[in-house]
Amino acid sequence: MTTKIGILQTGHLDGYLGETYGQYPQMFQNLLASEPFEYRIYKVVDGEFPASPTECDGWIITGSKHGVYEDHDWIKPLEEFCRKLVTGNQPTVGICFGHQILAQAMGAKVGKFEGGWGVGLKEYVLSETGESVHLLAFHQDQVLEQPENTDILMSSDFCQFAGLRYSPTCYSIQPHPEHTIPFITDLIKVRRGKAVPDDVADAALAKPNEPNDQARFGQMMGDVLDGKLRL
């Protein structure tokens, strides 16, 4: 029986980036290409919501250019759906905005980090093993406090709550395993001097394209969504 994955699309990629790399759901489908999943995309950013958390077997909440604290009419319904996913033990993975909306839905504060932007390849420490991992990041907003009844999966000096576990079947992370080096390079160039300060963008672009743990986290995502792994 094929596992059906619902992707909650929380933003659009416009212009060159969208034309070249596709939309956020496509990036996750590319990351999970080896998994025999069937996908259904819900454009929650446009007000399209699932009827029920059981409509799909597992869920992905994507990144977005929007802030979870912004006054959009789809934010509150998404928070309510997130709470149902957490309390219903539905296999769920939230990434970046998805990480933040889960935390906000469960009562934690999310906002702009006073330390500024986290852009490019970043190092994180896994809480349980102390192991260092590397993933691509692109954010100024952060989860600023730990939601109740969660475990910290990973953190860094820059991002204390970089990964959170809500249940053995529900977790979220701030960085982007679905991003590729070509995409984030172009993203930084497009946003340089507009959203991202020039010096932050230049430092990220100057860093060598070192290996990252994208494939490892993609496999973990697939295993959690397919019910093969309980964190």
Automatic annotation (TrEMBL):
<dbReference type="InterPro" id="IPR017926">
    <property type="entry name" value="GATASE"/>
</dbReference>
<keyword id="KW-0315">Glutamine amidotransferase</keyword>
<dbReference type="InterPro" id="IPR029062">
    <property type="entry name" value="Class_I_gatase-like"/>
</dbReference>
<protein>
    <submittedName>
        <fullName>Type 1 glutamine amidotransferase</fullName>
    </submittedName>
</protein>
<dbReference type="InterPro" id="IPR044992">
    <property type="entry name" value="ChyE-like"/>
</dbReference>
<feature type="domain" description="Glutamine amidotransferase">
    <location>
        <begin position="54"/>
        <end position="180"/>
    </location>
</feature>
<dbReference type="Pfam" id="PF00117">
    <property type="entry name" value="GATase"/>
</dbReference>
